[in-house]
Amino acid sequence: MTNQDWHVTQVGQCIIPSREVLVSEPIVPYRLYRFLTDLEEILLKESDDAIRLQQICPLVRHLLDHSPWIELQFLMPDPETGWSVNTLYDEPDYPLTIQIVSWMPGVKSSIHNHATWGLVAVLDGQEKNTFWQQATTEGLPLKKTGDRILDPGDIITFMPNAIHQIEALGDDPVISLNLYGETEFEQRFQFDPDTGAATLF
Question: Which domains does the chain have, with CATH numbers?
Answer without folding.
Answer: 5-18+28-196 (2.60.120.10)
